[in-house]
DNA sequence: CGCCCTGGGTGGATCGATCTATCGATAAAA
DNA sequence: TTTTATCGATAGATCGATCCACCCAGGGCG
C-alpha cells in the first residue's frame, strides 16, 4: 500500500489524497484565508498523514525570493561575533527569514567562495563582516553585486553599515585612564589596516592630545587579536626602559592575555598597571580582576544590522544608511579605583 | 542598450547572446566534454560579458541534489567546536559541497527549527552535534527523517556517529594523576546527561577503581562547561575539610577557570594541585602553567564526520557506522612533573 | 427572469537548469 | 555509393510550488 519508490511527497500527492487541486493545497500551506475551513482541515490532515515536507527551493524558484539571508562572519570563535550572530538570527527569525551562516576565518578566498555560494543560492540578502583586507579595491562591495548587502562591525564604503563609534570608545577609555593619573598609556593589539583598528587608534591619539599627553609611536603595538597577542605584547612593553603604566587593548581577549602576562611578571593588574578592553564579552566580568572595558553592545549591533538589511530588501534603491552605536565604559577593577 | 528591467541573467540569455541553445550553455557550465572548443569559448565569453550567476536552486530542483549539507552545532562559541567546523567545511569543500552552518546554543527549539529548514531546503545531508537533551525519545534521530544524517561529538542512537573515546581519555588522565601520587582526584564540570559527560565520568570512575582508589561521590561536581564553571567549583572544593589534590576537568575551558581559581586562592597549580583538561584547545598550550590535557583531535573528528556523511550519501542503505577516535594525553606543567 | 457579484476553487503557464531522445552533418566503413 | 558511427548540438519535458486568469454555483437585486 505504501509508495516506497516515490521519494518525495509533493503538493500533487497531497492534492490527490485530499481530493483537491495543487493550487488549493498551496493556498492552505501559505495560510491564504480564501479557503473554506472544512477544506483546509482536510488538506492539513493529508499533509500530516503523508509526511509532506515543504520544498523551499521550488517555491523560491517561482517567487524569486528564498527567505534566506547569508551571514558571513570573519571569525566565529570570537565571542563578540558569536553574540552578534545570535542577535542577528533572532531578529531575522521574527521576519521569517532563515540565516545561512558562513565563516571566513579572515580568509579572503573563503570569503569570496561564500559570497558566490550565497548569491548562487540565491539568498535574498547578505550580512557581512568583511575579512581583513589591505586592498579595499578588491574589497567586498563589488562582490556583493546587486544583492542587498549590509556590512557590520567593519566598515565598507558604498554599502549600508552598522557599527560602533570606536573613536568615541577609545576616548572614553583613555580619559578614564588619564583621570586615574596615568601618563604613559599603550595601545595593544589590533590591525591598523582594519577600520576597527584604525578608528580605535585614532580615538586613542585624539584623546591623548586632548588630555595634553605626548603621543609615543612606540606605545602603539599591533598584534593578532588573541589572548596570546596581548600576552606577548605586554611582556615586551615591560622590557622598555620607560614602560607605560596602563594599556588600552584592541579587545577583551587581548586584554585578558595582557592581564595574564602582568600576573606572570608579578605586576599587579589594576594596582600597578591599568588595563582596559573592548567589547565587554562575558569573560570580562568573570575575570580577576574584573576587566574594565568599552561595551560595544554586540546584541544591539546585530539587531541594527539585521534591521538595516530588512529595510534595504524592502526598498532596494533607498540611499545608503549608516548606523553608529555609541559605546559606554564599564568600570571594573582592572584600572584600580578612582 | 542595457537590459535594465530584466533582473536575472539566465541560460537563455547566454544562449541567445552566444547563438546556441540553452542545453549547450548548460553543458558548458557543467564542463561536459562533448562541446566543441570554439563553442565553449564563445559561450564562456558571453557568460562573462552578461555577468551570469549560476542558479543553484533551479539546478537542484531538477537534479534532486542541492550539493549543500547542513551543519548543526550546539555552541559555536566553544573553540573545540569551532575547530571541528573548520575541518568539516574543508573536507566537504573538497567534495564540492557547500556547508550551511546553524547554531542551536543548546536550545532544542532552535535545533528543531534548523533541522526543519535544512530539510526544506533541501540539504543533501546533515551533520549534527545534538543539543543537550534529557529526553532521548524526543531526540534527534526522528527529526532527521530520511535525510542522510551523521552525529558527531555527542552520540545519538540509530544513526552514524563520529566521536572520541571519552572513557579512555579519562582513564589516561586519571592514570597520569595517580602515577604522580594523587589519591583524591575530583571530576569538575560537564553535564552527566550528555553522552560526553557520561562517558568521561564513567572513565574517571573506572580508572579510580583500577588504581585501587575510593570513588567519592562528593568529588564529582557538575557545572556549566565554562571558565566560570571551573572557577566556582574549585573554590568550592578547596573549602572541603578533606580537599582533593587534583582534578580532571570536563574540558579545557573549565580547566582554565579552575587554574584561575587556584591562583586566586594562593594554591600553585601544577605544584600543589594537579589539573587536567579535555580537548587541547589552542589556549591550553599558551596558559600558565601549560595545561595538561586529553587531546580529542577536533580536526580529525571533523574530517571523520564529514567522511561518514559522504559515504552515507553515496549509499544510503549501508549499515550504521560508528567511528571512535582514540585520544592521547598531552603532558604539560599543570600537574607537576613526574 | 436576467444580471452581476462573490466566495471557493481550478488548470495551465511559469521560474531556471537539466535530462532524454533525437537530429543533422561529416567521417569512416562496407 | 550506401551504410554506419561519431560528434556536436538541440527541442521539449521535467523538477515542485506559485501565480494568473478564469470558472462555477448560488445569492441578491432590479
Features:
homodimer; 338 residues; alpha/beta; 13 helices; DNA-binding
Give a verbal description of the structure.
The structure is a homodimer. By secondary structure, chain A is α/β, with parallel strands linked by helices. Chain A is about 45% helix and about 15% strand. The first copy, chain A, contains 13 helices and twelve strands. Chain A has helices at about 10-20, 20-30, 35-50, 55-65, 80-95, 110-120, 140-145, 165-180, 195-210, 225-240, 250-265, 280-285, 300-315, and strands at about 70-75, 100-105, 125-130, 150, 160-165, 185-190, 220, 245-250, 275-280, 290-295, 320-325, 330. In chain A, the strands form two sheets. The first copy, chain A, has a six-stranded parallel β-sheet with strand order 2-1-3-4-5-11, sandwiched between helices. A six-stranded mixed β-sheet of chain A has the order 7-6-8-9-10-12, with helices on both faces. In chain A, helix 1 (about 10-20) crosses helix 2 (about 20-30) and helix 1 packs across helix 3 (about 35-50). Chain A is elongated, with a radius of gyration of 26 Å. The model of chain A is unreliable at about 135-140 (pLDDT under 50). At the A-B interface, helix 4, helix 5, strand 2, helix 6 and helix 10 of A face helix 4, helix 5, strand 2, helix 6 and helix 10 of B. Chain A binds a DNA duplex (30 and 30 nucleotides) through helix 2 and helix 4.
Amino acid at each position: 500500500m505504501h509508495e516506497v519508490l516515490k521519494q518525495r511527497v509533493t503538493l500533487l500527492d497531497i492534492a490527490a489524497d485530499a481530493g483537491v487541486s495543487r493550487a488549493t493545497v498551496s493556498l492552505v500551506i501559505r495560510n491564504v484565508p480564501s479557503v473554506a475551513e472544512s477544506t483546509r482541515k482536510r488538506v492539513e490532515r493529508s499533509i500530516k498523514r503523508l509526511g509532506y515536507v515543504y520544498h523551499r527551493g521550488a517555491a523560491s524558484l517561482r517567487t524569486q525570493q528564498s527567505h534566506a539571508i547569508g551571514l558571513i562572519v570573519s571569525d566565529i570563535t570570537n565571542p563578540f561575533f558569536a553574540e552578534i550572530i545570535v542577535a542577528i538570527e533572532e531578529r531575522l527569525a521574527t521576519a521569517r527569514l532563515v540565516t545561512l551562516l558562513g565563516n571566513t576565518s579572515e580568509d579572503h578566498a573563503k570569503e569570496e567562495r561564500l559570497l558566490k555560494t550565497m548569491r548562487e543560492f540565491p539568498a535574498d540578502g547578505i550580512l557581512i563582516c568583511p575579512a581583513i583586507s589591505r586592498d579595499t579595491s578588491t574589497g567586498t562591495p563589488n562582490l556583493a553585486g546587486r544583492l542587498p548587502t549590509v556590512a557590520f562591525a567593519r566598515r565598507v564604503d558604498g554599502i549600508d553599515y552598522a557599527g560602533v563609534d570606536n573613536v568615541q570608545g577609545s576616548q572614553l577609555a583613555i580619559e578614564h585612564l588619564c583621570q586615574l593619573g596615568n601618563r604613559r598609556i599603550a595601545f595593544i593589539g589590533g590591525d591598523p589596516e582594519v577600520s576597527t583598528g584604525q578608528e580605535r587608534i585614532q580615538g586613542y591619539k585624539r584623546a591623548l592630545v586632548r588630555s595634553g599627553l605626548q603621543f609615543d609611536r612606540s606605545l602603539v603595538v599591533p598584534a593578532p587579536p588573541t589572548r596570546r597577542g596581548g600576552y606577548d605584547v605586554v611582556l615586551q612593553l615591560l622590557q622598555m626602559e620607560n614602560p607605560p603604566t596602563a594599556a588600552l587593548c584592541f579587545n577583551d581577549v587581548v586584554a585578558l592575555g595582557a592581564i595574564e602576562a602582568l600576573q606572570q611578571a608579578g605586576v599587579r593588574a589594576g594596582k600597578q598597571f591599568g588595563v582596559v578592553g573592548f567589547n565587554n564579552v562575558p569573560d570580562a566580568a568573570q575575570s580577576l580582576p574584573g576587566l574594565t572595558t568599552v561595551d560595544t553592545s554586540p546584541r544591539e549591533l546585530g539587531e541594527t544590522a539585521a534591521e538595516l538589511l530588512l529595510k534595504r530588501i524592502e526598498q532596494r534603491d533607498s540611499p545608503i544608511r549608516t548606523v553608529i552605536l555609541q559605546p559606554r565604559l564599564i568600570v571594573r577593577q582592572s584600572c584600580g579605583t578612582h
